[in-house]
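Recap from last week: sequence in, structure out.
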Amino acid sequence: MILSNKIPQKFSFRTRLFVVMTVILLLAGILILGTTSIQYEAQRENYHLGRLNRKVAQVERHINSLVEKYNLYEQPDSIWATYEEDFEKINQIHSIHYSLFSAEGNPLFIYHTPLEVIANDYTLDQKLRDKIYSSKDATYMEEYQSDIDKFHASYRLLKDARGIPYGILFFPYFEDVSFSENELNNFLRNLYQIYILLFIGVIFIAYFLSKYVTRSLETIRSRMATTGLEKQNEKIYLKNATREIDSLVNSYNKMIDDLAESAEKLARTEREQAWQEMARQVAHEIKNPLTPMRLTVQSFQQMYDPNDPDNKQKLKEFTKLLIQQIDTMTDVAEAFSNFATLPKSKMKTSDLVEVTQLAVSIFNQEHIIFSSNQAHIFHELDRTQWIRVITNLVQNGLQSVPKKRVPQIGIHIIGDVDISTISITDNGSGIPSDLKDKIFEPKFTTKSSGMGLGLGIVKNIIDSHGGLIAYVSTPEKGTTFTITLPKK
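Predicted structure tokens:
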């Protein structure tokens, strides 16, 4: 069995927001169309039912007036038949075709009746009459769905002034289904067109709205992706941000401050640890010769005999041993002193161009551009210290260049009658404005490693040569250090 290690693709918040808004709109549209159709059908049903009731009420009043006029209450069917012409006129007056039955369900006037009634010899069966008598408001509604006739019908129980039933009115209602269906179809078609246009418009709105909502989040994401402990991180400033986004930005900016503070503390701690380790090493190296020196002195005190003829030789050996141990301690102290401070300058006339080229030669020449307005410029220099100055500045310049950028260091010497000017330019990230007053301080560095002595030693060397050092820095473009050396 082979298990796939492929990580499922995650959709972005912007895509999810866009899809959710679109799906919500689609569901809302379906619900609107569905409820509109149901509501339309309900309204249509109520309209036709009300129209049916009004028609039945009109015909009932007309029949009641004829029955009362001719006093047909409790009269046999033959008497009713004598007034057939008057009852037939009701069809013409109201543009209908009704039927009238006696209270027992026998036909009186038949102009239209369902097939079930015709099959029952035009008589209302007992079951149907029970429904009519037991119905609310003495009205029973029936829907007929046969191959020949499709209509609604109302059976109304007719009563006299005393409330005694004397007849049953059958009223068929033929609904114009084709008109209703066409009206509904036209309505839904217009609604579909409006909804499609609305749906397309809302898709565009949802797209740009999701883009606008997530733009701030994308800015925060890109900044967080470039955040690092060993670099100068930038804060985020957004205009017209929402309360939630503004809170997130404030948290990010606070994190940047905390990160910068932590990086500074970490760098300071590392430097302190390095100095402490060096101090322990120095103490250890100094203790090493002190122990034999102590033993030698104690041994000399115990074995010293004023009358011994070999005292001069023993004193000479004793002195030689002490001097050797003192020299060892001196070497340790000088080594530490040379690391932290500068030995005394050994000045001699040297070619500034030659020594500078010698210092630059240890670096990759593809990244170095060297130029001088004179082939030879002589100065009183300490060659070792001057090489240290150049290598330190070039190395700092190379380290300041971001990894995605090709390093480019320019070194230019201009010799004049009294002074020489040396410019060292890099294309690095530049020096932040809040650090410009600290870069020449001893034990200060923006890097998490190192003792922070480089630029401090450089300045001390330049000062010991009677020169000046200054710099100009542009963020994300680079820094130019300018050294001015007098020839005397």
